Amino acid sequence: MKALVISAVALFLSLGGAAVAQTATVVVPGEVKTYVQKQETPSVTFEGDVAVGTALPDTVEIHTIPDQPDYGYVVVNKKRVLVNPKTRAVIEVIQ
Q: How many Å apart are CA 95 and CA 37, to the nearest integer?
């Protein structure tokens, strides 16, 4: 009986950890990506990986997108990156 309880607790904990690890998928409107790809913006250098979830430092200027307050962009290490302007977190690396 004790082994059954321990197995059940282990299963519960492993499933709970999987639920915590899930992240929400952000669906970016096509017009946002199109706008960002058309902009002639100089690239800034950033030390480290630029990946989804990475928070960019205050020294990186985030450019606004007209009529899209939930999205900003920056060109980092020659890659176009969509950013949440409130949290400065990378939403998507376009190229």
A: 9
State the DSSP string of 23-47.
-PPP---HHHHHHHHH-----B--S
Sorted by sequence, the CB contacts under 8 Å of residue 72 that are 6+ apart come out as 62, 63, 64, 65, 82, 83, 84, 85
The Cβ-side half-sphere exposure at 68, using a 13 Å CA radius, reads 20
Per-residue model confidence as pLDDT tens for the chain (95 residues): 544 434 443 434 344 443 444 456 778 889 999 999 999 999 999 898 899 999 999 999 999 999 999 999 999 999 999 999 999 999 999 97
* Alpha-carbon span 93 to 48, nearest angstrom: 14
d(C-alpha 95, C-alpha 88), whole Å? 18
